[in-house]
Specification:
This protein is mainly α and 170 residues long. The protein has helices at 3-11, 15-37, 40-57, 67-107, 114-121, 124-134, 140-147, 151-169. The radius of gyration is 25 Å and the shape is elongated. It starts with a helix and ends with a helix.
């Protein structure tokens, strides 16, 4: 049976046609996601979510684009949404860690300086060089060797991080 006929039947509620249609496109969607994520596990998860979304929304397919393009659009949106969720989760976890550290230092009668709050807002790639430079006194060259990045990159990250810290602390 041709694809357009399978689509038509699937839109009418034929589960067999929908199943056949999804089986034909599963590998295509998976390989597309694998090229983007470079992670088989994430690609598999999002491919399965794409199939579920397709089952739920098949009646909304309007035929203006290829069915495979429609599936790729769904997969792409799911991937972007997952990235946003992960970013929010990571931020939440970092805030939880900061709260725990504040509590631990408070319970040990230590002071939690405002600068540590500001440091926590820096991305990790900037926070590490600043701490190594200004808390531990390493040279730019030593930091570059530790992080396997160029000395100029270290200087740039430290400069921009300090600029952001000054802005935060004002």
């Amino acid at each position: 049976m041709e694809e357009h006929e399978l689509i038509r039947q699937a839109m009418r509620g034929d589960n067999t046609a929908l199943s056949q249609l999804l089986q034909q496109h599963y590998d295509f969607v998976y390989k597309y996601l694998l090229k983007i994520t470079l992670n088989p596990s994430i690609s598999e998860d999002i491919t399965q979510e794409t199939v579920i979304r397709c089952i739920e929304k098949i009646k909304l397919y309007n035929g203006k684009s290829k069915f495979s393009s429609w599936l790729m659009t769904i997969a792409t949106h799911l991937l972007i949404d997952q990235g946003r969720r992960r970013k929010r989760e990571k931020l939440w976890q970092e805030q939880e860690q900061i709260s725990r550290l504040k509590w631990q230092t408070g319970s040990q009668n230590e002071v939690w300086p405002d600068v540590l709050n500001s440091l926590a807002k820096l991305p990790q790639e900037s926070r590490i060089p600043v701490i190594l430079k200004h808390y531990y006194g390493y040279t730019y060259e030593e930091i570059g060797q530790m992080l396997s990045i160029a000395e100029g990159t270290v200087k740039s990250r430290v400069h921009h991080a300090l600029k952001q810290l000054r802005k935060e602390l004002e």
